[in-house]
Design brief:
heterodimer; A: 115 residues; mainly beta; seven-stranded mixed β-sheet; four-stranded antiparallel β-sheet; 0% helix; B: 112 residues; six-stranded mixed β-sheet; five-stranded antiparallel β-sheet
């Protein structure tokens, strides 16, 4: 158990809909990262937040957005969903804002299925 | 742009045999390099990483990797495979801490 929690574990929705994925980092960690793992595209880094501020941005679509709240939990919002958005979405956390080179601890993921 | 190539989407070894998982990267500046392991229905776990300094990096579970700049490689090895090593392994590279790119993954099977 990494100490990173993600909810929900599974999510089934329809095309065009909007969903919110939630992540709670390990106690004391200030950075949160989001990743997408799909059969087509493999593992992709989406975005990093550090202490509430966006720190690094990867291959995140404009239909996707994220934020980190004062209690350090983070939410990833996916809108206008398409079939191709079906994937496993991971959250990870690290101690500080040192960037992607820091040791990250991954949550178990949220599996999203868009029908 | 940086990229990562993992040679061999599937590798099968016998229990007790050497494990060698290959990773090559492309980068115009010194990279940070990582190996992650993913067990079924779980998130990723960091095995080891190279940032600076010693080019031979030791990780958890008996794994190690060597950064070879001249070959742009970061191959993962373990002298003796165990059944519990069966999993998917991902090589990743980050440059300037602003983006991370993953290889396509190598599924390791360990035969008794």
């Amino acid at each position: 158990d990494s100490g990173v929690t993600q909810t929900p574990k599974h999510l089934i929705t329809a095309t065009g809909q909007r969903v919110t994925l939630r992540c709670s980092p390990r106690s004391g960690d200030l950075s949160v990262y989001w990743y997408q793992q799909s059969l087509d595209q493999g593992l992709q880094f989406l975005i990093q937040y550090y202490n509430g501020e966006e720190r690094a941005k990867g291959n995140i679509l404009e239909r996707f957005s994220a934020q980190q709240f004062p209690d350090l939990h983070s939410e990833l919002n996916l809108s206008s969903l398409e079939l191709g958005d079906s994937a496993l979405y991971f959250c990870a956390s690290s101690v500080s804002g040192g960037g992607l080179g820091e040791t990250q601890y991954f949550g178990p993921g949220t599996r999203l299925l868009v029908l | 742009a940086q990229s990562v190539t993992q040679l061999g989407s599937h590798v099968s070894v016998s229990e007790g045999a050497l494990v060698l998982l290959r990773c090559n990267y492309s980068s115009s500046v010194p990279p940070y390099l990582f190996w992650y392991v993913q067990y079924p229905n779980q998130g990723l776990q960091l095995l080891l990483k190279y940032t600076t300094g010693a080019t031979l990096v030791k990780g958890i579970n008996g794994f190690e990797a060597e950064f070879k700049k001249s070959e742009t490689s970061f191959h993962l090895t373990k002298p003796s495979a165990h059944m519990s090593d069966a999993a998917e392994y991902f090589c990743a590279v980050t440059i300037n801490n602003n983006d991370m790119r993953f290889g396509a993954g190598t599924r390791l099977t360990v035969k008794p």
